[in-house]
From TrEMBL:
Highest taxon above the source species: Eukaryota
PROSITE patterns for the chain: TYR_PHOSPHATASE_2, TYR_PHOSPHATASE_DUAL
Biased composition (Pro residues): 1-19
Gene: SSH3
Record-linked InterPro entries: Dual-sp_phosphatase_cat-dom (IPR000340), Prot-tyrosine_phosphatase-like (IPR029021), Tyr_Pase_dom (IPR000387), TYR_PHOSPHATASE_DUAL_dom (IPR020422)
GO molecular function list: protein tyrosine phosphatase activity
Chain segments annotated as transmembrane: none
Keywords: Hydrolase, Protein phosphatase
Name used for this protein in its record: protein-tyrosine-phosphatase
GO cellular component: cytoplasm
Native source organism of the sequence: Symbiodinium pilosum
Amino acid sequence: MPPPPKASAPKPKAQPPKPAVSTGSSGAGMSALLSKVEAVGKKKDLEEAKEIEDIDLSQIDPSAAREKVTCPRCEKEVLKEHFESHMTAHSSEILPWLFLGGKRNLENDKELTVRTNITHVLNLAQEVNLKEDFRIIATEYNLERGLPFVYKKFSFGDTPDQHILPELDSAVQFIHDARSLSQQHHVLVNCVQGISRSASVVIAYLMKYEHMHLREAYDHVRERRTVADPRKEFVDQLAQFECQIFGLDKPSLTGAIAFEGRTLLNLDDPLPQSERDCEEGAEVQNTVPAAPKAGTDVVIEEDILNKLSGHAIESREWYADANPANSPTKTAVDVDGKATTTILDSQTVDVTVPDQS
Ligand SMILES: [Zn+2]
């Protein structure tokens, strides 16, 4: 019997920002801001460390290697076997100025400012908004450095019927414009977990402006963010985008090829689609069954956790939510339809009970 899901501690609120920070000075304003960022960052780090690393394996396997490595981003010592999952809690550096991550990276002052120096945020998740506290701190921080803070949102759902193709040009243009204006500009592309929607847009950017073919861009992103995994329907739309950009008849990758041989949990029809031609406007096939309604009997501990034990899940298709558009990847609604359970990695579960007010 695997351990029950841990209920996450209440998220610490960001410190209320100080009203005025003088612009252009490198003195008191910035140092006050940095100490504020430091304090909030410390809380966030502690909270994420609890989620990810506070799993004592010694009771399961006393001989388990306890070798630790230092995280290059937060300088925290983490167990070597947890290093990969630790790194996915940070945003991932896709290019030296282009970062891919999740909501938690948008809501960690320290990550957003001193660690990655983000000046531009491209949020692709319809259910995520940049909270005012974080916007103010990031704006103040960048103002002190003589840089802007720009936020742009595209409301994509992580659903099989989400058409991202019509918006891809505008989305990648935002990234390109940000970078074209100044080499000091750093861009964070995020969705909820930095897995599907945001990864798709970063891949599209690499195709259009780094001239990578889809296969290369897909591999590039997945090598740098191991959890990145655009859903099959998005890969097919990226394939159409590739054909448009490079004038190809056939893409270098399709959803069917990307997902070939994968075990899709709870997916009735995992047969790979035949390779699709790049017909513009071709219907993207929906092979994902409709998500069950909230309250559906999803036995998290015994069902999903057993399937997850010992290996990272490769599919998001098992989630259950009354409104799939509101369902981040790897999420299930529990049996009474109230708590949302997010599988962070093979061993960590984050249970959130939404505010009922
Ligand atoms: Zn770290």
